[in-house]
Amino acid sequence: MSNTMSGPVHLGLPPEWPQPVRGCRVCAALAKQRAEAAGAGDQSKVSDCNVEISRHMEPHPRRRR
Ligand SMILES: [Zn+2]
């Protein structure tokens, strides 16, 4: 368990937030929703978005070039 510091959201993503996958429109949409929810102080929605993003990680195909 980690200490949760109470304070304003700093620039950048909190380390515990899953990163959206680049090039994925779903992840981008979720990340946008999450940012908006965070801006509105809606922590429960932020958590929802985090769950959805982390779940969306798995179905992503590996990057191919
Ligand atoms: Zn995605």
Folded structure, characterized:
- This protein has 65 residues and is an all-alpha fold.
- The protein has a domain at 25-57.
- It has two helices and no strands.
- The radius of gyration is 13 Å and the shape is elongated.
- It binds zinc ion.
- The site of zinc ion (ZN) has 6 residues, from helix 1.
Order of helices and strands: HH
Outline type: elongated
Distance between the terminal alpha carbons, to the nearest Å? 38 Å
* Bound ions, cofactors and other small molecules, one mention each: zinc ion
Helical content (DSSP H or I, runs of 4+): 40-55%
- Indicate the radius of gyration in whole angstroms: 13 Å
The residue-averaged pLDDT reads 82
Q: Give the biggest sheet.
A: none
- Give me the number of helical elements: 2
- What percent strand? under 5%
- Residue stretches low in confidence (pLDDT < 50, at least 5 long) are none
What structural class do the secondary elements suggest?
mainly alpha
Total beta strands: 0
